[in-house]
């Protein structure tokens, strides 16, 4: 049997763009995707289960993992650590499961460094689209306002450069379908498929 | 308005794999795609319309176009030329239409040379999949037969290297959906989207 490895998909984008909503809707539709379980030092809340909601660790354990380069990404937030353990993700991928990571832009950049073979999807708000239209048409707004928006848009565009795909979140259903298309087509990328075939043939010859 | 350029998609694969069936089913579902109209020197049959079924040309006109590098690909077959005119494809792309080219492997390689920015999809038969399974399991066939199949599979795999995607045509509906996913996700590629945004912003500044 040829074991196809899973793919790590990273969904990110500016805050407020609706990453969580898209991710939830995607998981309702696609049960094959594994959502990456985060690791944290904050104590479990009632009903939270270790290894399901989070991996709960002590501060010492977490810092040990950081030091040993065992985190794909992490952040310190209101006195606690949050992050994605490398081992868990790698195990899922090795088992042929796709892993889906929904994460803030800053965390996504860390993932890009530690896991460049991931597929990075940038979700942008439709307001940027609108802004784009406004910018190129003759504007009726004050020059300063246009300039500020332009600056913000540019910052977002620079973030884009780290990503493989850009999806406009105008309608959740459409955005989810587009992300599903990306998942599907990434599995047909020649690099991935050809490697499998070649491995299969080599195995026969040896 | 930002005009998004169309994308040239090339569907190819070994003969008999079902390229035509997949293409027809795709066009039934997706009316936005433009099927590339071929150019030929063979005389029109009854009911065939110039510019709809084919672009009909004389031998001299066709050879003139070959000489002036105006064909994306062409072949000589039973005394007549057949090929894809560059101008027609480029005009469709400039108008924002995706163009879909279903073509034999030899023609696809010509397209690759003349239009490397196209998206190349390789359709493979499920029998190659089966073969692959057979090769890695203990075979009951004669050694020679296995060796011949292996050789054929290898030739096909080498062709794969020129392509961006590999789609297994096990079920037509599934294959068509996969091709649709590829079309959709290619439009979200960051390189394409980012260029549009950057152009829009530059236009505003100038």
UniProtKB/TrEMBL annotation, chains A, B:
<dbReference type="GO" id="GO:0005524">
    <property type="term" value="F:ATP binding"/>
</dbReference>
<dbReference type="Pfam" id="PF00625">
    <property type="entry name" value="Guanylate_kin"/>
</dbReference>
<dbReference type="InterPro" id="IPR008145">
    <property type="entry name" value="GK/Ca_channel_bsu"/>
</dbReference>
<keyword id="KW-0547">Nucleotide-binding</keyword>
<keyword id="KW-0067">ATP-binding</keyword>
<feature type="binding site">
    <location>
        <begin position="13"/>
        <end position="20"/>
    </location>
    <ligand>
        <name>ATP</name>
    </ligand>
</feature>
<keyword id="KW-0808">Transferase</keyword>
<protein>
    <recommendedName>
        <fullName>Guanylate kinase</fullName>
        <ecNumber>2.7.4.8</ecNumber>
    </recommendedName>
</protein>
<dbReference type="InterPro" id="IPR020590">
    <property type="entry name" value="Guanylate_kinase_CS"/>
</dbReference>
<keyword id="KW-0418">Kinase</keyword>
<dbReference type="InterPro" id="IPR008144">
    <property type="entry name" value="Guanylate_kin-like_dom"/>
</dbReference>
<keyword id="KW-0963">Cytoplasm</keyword>
<dbReference type="InterPro" id="IPR027417">
    <property type="entry name" value="P-loop_NTPase"/>
</dbReference>
<dbReference type="GO" id="GO:0005829">
    <property type="term" value="C:cytosol"/>
</dbReference>
<comment type="function">
    <text>Essential for recycling GMP and indirectly, cGMP.</text>
</comment>
<feature type="domain" description="Guanylate kinase-like">
    <location>
        <begin position="6"/>
        <end position="184"/>
    </location>
</feature>
<comment type="similarity">
    <text>Belongs to the guanylate kinase family.</text>
</comment>
<dbReference type="GO" id="GO:0004385">
    <property type="term" value="F:GMP kinase activity"/>
</dbReference>
<dbReference type="InterPro" id="IPR017665">
    <property type="entry name" value="Guanylate_kinase"/>
</dbReference>
